[in-house]
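Q: Okay, next protein. This is Leucine-responsive regulatory protein from Micromonospora noduli. I've checked the sequence twice, so it should be correct. Can you predict the 3D structure?
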Amino acid sequence: MQIDAVDQRIIALLVADARASYADIGARVSLSAPAVKRRVDRLRATGVIRGFTAVVDPAAVGWTTEAFVELFCAGRTTPAQIGVAARRHPEVVGAYTVSGEADALVHLRAADIAHLEAALERLRAESFVTSTRSTIVLSRLVESPGVGPSAGTS
């Protein structure tokens, strides 16, 4: 599917505020509300936009402790196996296969160190995990919910 500059701008505006009206978006990209709706419908139908979601501030719900955990896995553990296991743990906010020594990188978020430790122990108990290496996040410097260089810009 071809995505033009207007589609990219619409996507960036939706990433910044998924509740923005088609009229508001149209005013920003010089299109009518129905034209924006048609474009959004096409972007959804082709899978470019997969859905709309609420972005929750982890601090507001008390999950202020986070870590990145390198997973080292046994033998021929597949990315699918890692993904299935990661989804079993509510503290996992992201899981990725990576290059380098580790097989995967898992992003955990928890209420405090004790909660983080419990989550890490449950993750380590997965049958394919042979070892882990953890890095605790001290502060967030940059965070963008969007895709590409224009995401979230006005």
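A: Here is a summary of the prediction. Residues 3-44 form a domain with the Arc Repressor Mutant, subunit A fold (CATH 1.10.10.10). The helical segments are 5-16, 22-29, 33-45, 79-87, 113-124.
Q: Noted. On to the next one.
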